[in-house]
Amino acid sequence: MPGPAALAAKLLAVWHATGREIARHCGADAAQFLLIEGGSAAVLLSIAAPALLFLLPLNLYAGDSILDDQFSKTTINHITKGSPLLWIHFVFTVIVVVLVHFGISAIQERLRITRFRDNFGNLSDPSSNSTAIFTIMVQGLPKIIGADRAVLHEYFQYRYPGKVYKVIVPMDLCALDDLANELLRVRDEISWLVARMDSRLLPDDDYDGGEGGLGGGVEQGGWKGIRHCLICCWKWWKGFCADVMAKFGYTDDERLRKLQEVRAELENELADYKEGHAPGAGVAFVMFRDVYTANKAVQDFQNEKRRRIGKFFSLLELRLRRNQWKVERAPLATDIYWKNMGTPRLSLKLRRVFVNTCLMLVLLFFSSPLAVISALKSAGRIINAEAMDNAQNWVAWVQSSSWLASLVFQFLPNVIIFVSMYIVIPSVLSYLSKFERHLTVSGEQKAALLKMVCFFLVNLIILRGLVESSLESAILKMGRCYLDGEDCKRIEHYLSASFLSKSCLSSLAFLITSTFLGISYDLLAPIPWIKRNLQKFRKNDMLQLVPEQSEEYQLENQDTNGLQRPLMQNESAYDNSSMDNPEGQDLSVYPITGSSPAPKQTFDFAQYYAFNLTIFALTLVYCSFAPLVVPVGVVYFGYRYVVDKYNFLFVYRVRGFPAGNDGRLIDTVIFIMRICVDLFLMAMLLFFSVQGDSTKLQAIFTLALLVMYKLLPSSSDSLQSTLLEGVQTIENVVDGPIDYEIYSQPRFDWDNSQG
Q: Radius of gyration over alpha carbons of the chain, in Å?
């Protein structure tokens, strides 16, 4: 444990660390995450001022509804239905929308320092020198192009004469990875089979344990005879089975011959990869000499795809399957899962259909542990109702017989929910996203983020607000309510004073728990501590084909002073060279593996983004219903900002992450933040439609506000003519090997070790 002086120095360094320093020393992902947290805290702080100064006194002293508890008097329920005072809540709704809109725009502007290009492909940071800004990625090519890439180069030279710098067509690395795994498996089987055949040539004394064996002189009397009899019976049985298998042609010699034939075929296929004659991955990276041409190429191909009807293709374009192309700006070379390069489209679609179908079913029926427990209870009652009644009686008796048992049963459901929502469900969704085989790390994180946001929104907002255990039960109740023709006021029930007060109180309690329990859990950082201790007992394998599963890039193996050096005074700083420079990195990280060239992240950005977005949505949705929710949300984001900033600098920090990325993940985060505003407006629309004025003007104006907000520009980015006029050329950036070309070339030293 550090001493008080060292801890104070670290906290002071954390306080003074700027966004650019975080991006340079911890990576663009960490800087973007902290900017989102700090921006969310600032936005909610601006909302907290009118909420506490105007709405809270309004609800407390101007309301005249008869309510029992003091907390309900602080909510919107204290104002009677149809009261003119609700217009103040509508004005507050407008203020919230305006503040959040300009707050998100300010966050986007600050995020520019962590991106090497904007949404239009222009440079966000003029000092950026990444090769990705000159490169486009073409998907949908025929795999035969891998052996004859000159055709593709000729086509782009024809479209953009003199502007093409290089065309890189990777080999089918997905098939190569499968080939390598199969070859290693066959070699292992051959080695094992040869060893077993050689063991049969050993003398019988060595096999059955004669006087000179390991058991000689130890066993006495009848035990020795029994052992000898059992060994003879075992040898006879093995010989009998071998004779039977030999009659059907299943001998060890025959199996060895077939395995050797398979090995020869696999080695011939591997030789094609070594000689460069293997099929391509169906993907190409086209590098242009300037940024303007790269942006123009993306726009040209995307516009042609929209106007495909009535277009005729030349013979060269038909040969290149021009109608199946998908052209986009290339991601960073370090952002690509090179092992997935070449995965068939059908396989990708089937994987994603399977994962999304499973996700929808789980969201509908088993979205939370409470839903699983309810389903198990229902199934048990169908199978044996008497046994379930006895079990419930036993549980009730245990709770009443001991205070310890009562305490355990009281906190056990909350512990199960915390473990499932904080550990189990994010881990499962991360593995499902990895199963989809995304081409880039950011694409995988984006998929995991969307899945986690859906889970958290359903469990922590929708089901918590409806006080239901699953969506299926809520849908069934709503269906019976409206389809049976009864006089049912289900929406009115959800927005009634008692129900809404319970929902607000539950959400406030959850926010307080998340603020002080969840963030304190992250402050202790138990997961990295456990991983570092387990790493000491991990077996050191001689052959590691997938370093992302075996290399943790532990913080303890790095120079501790190096972590503090760029942040402390009187110390030399890091080299300010860009992390995107190929010469500044180890370009031999990628053998034939499934890993990205970047080191493995020890911080799950998708999980924490999803949870933070859920808290942001929860605070916005209830900011007008219960103003006390807003300051708790401010404390949550402010507290988490400090804790995460400290963890990034001194706990989770790993060297090697680029200081700028293309912002695909952060664009999704910004999009979801805007969706949170939509949820807030929809909640206010439902409230005003039920509890508002009799003329429904408040509901109509809220709907108009929602439409106007959706029509507002979602980004402040615009074409930067100054940057396009002063075009940066690729010759000023490339000084040595090209990262795309080096990362796409697999290493075969693992094969040389096999002899």
A: 32
